[in-house]
């Protein structure tokens, strides 16, 4: 199958609004996301998709997946991103859980620290004309939208896709899964600011450390109530070797009140770097790459 100059090789995922393919053109491999064919008759959705793709194409940071191209071709609205030759953190967590291999504390901190740098870059962007902060939040930070390459480089993906309510087949999001990473203020009819991404990234850290999602309930209603009230199981109950320093980092990232949360991703990143500085071994991309190699 062909979309313009891009040959589609394999479908990677399909969501409510968008499907993603491994693709290639004359330059080599890439990933291509397109609006589902049956939704192309909704001009407002296509317009939003292309507008967000244009915005995302301006993002240039080693910890953010690049958008290389976007447009419409033969009735298909699409955007093309750089390929990432490694798993999402969701896949990494699942694979290591199946092996019974918990991630070392430093690896968890290193993965999230890199993601925090990518988010910090986007959060700090300003309007070129006015110099005012754009305050561009991701709004869907979760293990499925953070990926790590075989070289140990972490990249936050899917900027702008949250507006289309995309859910990845690779994570099979249920209502509980889809809401578990959303900040508590969202359920209090408040509009989350950039600290909502801090909360989502804190949830990613929790799941990396424990291998489990933070919220439990006897049934769907119970789980949803736990999410709305941010009543998560303390990570130390699931990982007793968790040091106090890491417990404090988690508690601050996951604070119910945004005022008590890390004010931004640089502050979150700084505490993670400080934590790693006290570890016996440095946690660089080479260390992360070895863990990726275990599951790919």
From TrEMBL:
Superkingdom of the organism of origin: Bacteria
Entry annotated with the keyword ATP-binding: yes
Pfam family of the protein (one): Pkinase
Alphabetized SUPFAM superfamilies for the sequence: Protein kinase-like (PK-like)
Keyword Flavoprotein listed: no
Protein kinase domain residues: 6-279
Keywords: ATP-binding, Kinase, Nucleotide-binding, Transferase
Protein name per its UniProtKB record: Protein kinase
